[in-house]
Amino acid sequence: MAPTGQWFILLFSSLILGFGFQAFHIPAALLLGPMIVGVAMGLSGASIRIHPCMFQVSQGILGCMIAQSLSPSILTPLLHDWPLVLLVLIATLLASGVSGWLLVRFSQLPGPTGAWGSSPGGASAMVAMAGDFGADVRLVAFMQYLRVLFVATAAAFVARLSLGDDASSQAAVVTWFPSLDWRFAGTLAIAAVGILLAPRLRIPSGALLLPAILGATVHSTGIMSLQVPEWLLAIAYALIGWSVGLRFTRQIFLLALKSLPQMVLSIVCLMLFCGGLAWMLTLLLPVDMLTAYLATSPGGLDTVAIIAAGSRVDMSFVMAMQTLRLLTVLVTGPAMARFISRSASPASA
Q1: What global pTM score does this model have?
Q2: Is the pLDDT of residue 339 over 50?
Q3: For residue 326, which of 1, 66, 75, 311 sits 20 to 30 Å off, Cα-Cα?
């Protein structure tokens, strides 16, 4: 099919599925719908792709949305309960390391590929770094975004169950087309500055993190209130969903097919372990289960943020935990990948 027809199917099907999910008040419906349609089209042989520049723009818009919920108080949960936060962080890293080690040992994946594919950091950052350490970037991308798909779907339905009847009342107050003023232009400028600085400063996931930091600074200090309309967020959600979904090409799927059962088992076990950590957090800290689940969830930073924004959770706590883990994985990832590559020789060897 010609690219024009593929784009039409992608857009039309995403609208139907996304707003269909929203009719049932599923959080992050406008992310999940396009993501699932993208997966289906990618596996069906679609040739269209979302340009990396559009993905970065979407992350910048998402960063400005996150900034509205951030303040200097984001450091409070990290500093006040640092022993517990450190324990959860180390436990998650060890669980992902064990998961990667077992995956390499009992599958046909090369060591670096299994290690980077199992890292619980930002998916785009892990894919970007994997190639520099001898990993098959295609398989790392498949593993990372397969986990994002699993985690995003599970987290959205956990959020729906947690919200219950509150989901319908929350969805009813959405204003799609508010009146815009100079703050909208200022918000776009902050997103643009963050996106342009990210590659120069070589900050992984910088297209999301820099606008979030810059936006939170001007927003929390009262310099300017950010304005991110719902229609713009919906476009950003769809572009992120399509970027993830369309990576699931038929060629990569066939390449990963031999190790797919081990990949899925690894992802499910890591999700269950992080769910256990979330339950522990609710016993020791004054946070609800949904906040704890999203804070420990091993998904991408952007998708977790989208789901958190559609739920009544402590966004500061979620973003603090997720950002801390991302930064830690970026520092420890190379050493862990080398250790797994050297020690996890296949069981048949």
Answers
A1: 0.75
A2: yes
A3: 311
